[in-house]
Structure formats: structure tokens, C-alpha cells
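Hey, resending since the last one bounced:
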Amino acid sequence: MKPYIRGFTLLEVLVAISIFAIIGLSANQMLRSIIDTQSRVRAGNETFASISRTLTVIHRDLTQVIPRGIRDGYGEPMGPLVIGQGPYVLEFTRTGWNNPARHQRSEVQRVAYGVEDDTLYRYFWLVLDRAEDSEPRSQILLRNIEGFSASVVDPEGETADAWPELDSNQVLPPGLEITIDVEPIGLIRRVYAMTDLPQSLPGGFGQGRDQESDEGEDDSLRPGVPLGAGLRDVPGGRE
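The C-alpha cells again:
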């Protein structure tokens, strides 16, 4: 006589399958949550890294602005700092253009910043006084920005969206404010001191002051000294 073997009932099998399904679904949801969290953290880190690099580049440029005008492709003079005029948000002349390969060129560089398709670009020219076919080279600094603006700041803290002013004999304004609207960070603001003393440009363009400071000159009067910011200033050096 064969022994009686009792198997699982259909109900027991369905209950077991349901339990395993719930466990599998929970594990899958937990894994997806971990992956999504890692993706968001990675994206956030990349955003902050891009912002940090951008602020470093801006800091490095604006702390080395010099009062040297140029001529555009049509031979017309342009001041050392131009805001709110032309195709770029901001255009200026800076020194400290690093030359590790020791090419036969100046260490002075013409730089501009502009926005295209929600992307902040840095432009630079290989020459100061341009020919008609002189085209800038572009560098992508920061993507997915809501806005980028530049304005001059007077000693009273008032701002203006254009420079140079028609009734001003200054080569550089007292201060320069940069604002970047970054999603999802918000507004990032930087203010730099350019100069406290009126300086006219001999001959209307192209001549700047002596780059060597007088002995004992206060560092706070040098062009490009950062005044303050919404976030911690990022130290910069020569490019």
C-alpha cells in the first residue's frame, strides 16, 4: 500500500506566489529608489562642479581686467569694458593670458561673455585689434541657465546696465556686478571693484595705465578686487 502524500493546495500556492511577488516588488522599488537617488546626487554634484568652474573662470577674468581699449573689425575704437552694447552681455580686456607654449603673442586678451540657447559661453580673440575676418573662439561654461547679466556699480551702490557712459571720462567703472540665474540653484551674484580713480584713455583708445602698481599702493584700489558675493568667493589665478 502506497503511503499517502499530501501536497500544497491551490490556495497555499497562490498565497506563496503572492508573498514572493510582494517581496520582489518591494525589492525592485527599493533598488529603483536607490538608483534614482544616486542619479540625482550625481546630477547635483555635476551642477555644482560646473558652477564652481564657471565662477573660477569669471573670477580669474575679472580680477585681471586692465584699461586697454581695442579696435573692432571696422577699425572703430572700443573701450576696455563694454556692457549692454553689441552681441555680447559683457566684453573686456584682461591680462594674464597664460602662454605655456611660448607663442609669439601678447599676454593681454580680449574676452566676452554671452548666452545662447540657455548656455553661458566665454569668447576670446587671438588678437586685440581685429581684422574684418577676426572671429572669436568659444568655450561652453554652464548649461541650463535662466539668465546672465552684467551691470556697473557706482560708489553709492547704484547700478547701470550699460557701459561706457557718454558723459563719463572713466576707462573702467568703480565696480562691476555679475548675476547668474542657475536652475535649480537660483541667483548667484558677484561684485568686483574695478577702480576708484577716474582714468581717461589717451588718444581715445588703446593706451592703458602702467600695469605696475606704485610702491605702497593699497591692494583694494587695484582693478578686479572682489567686493562680495552671494556665495563664497572662489579663488582664481592666471589662466
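Residues 50-209+218-229 form a domain with the Pili subunits fold (CATH 3.10.610.10).

Sorry for the duplicate.
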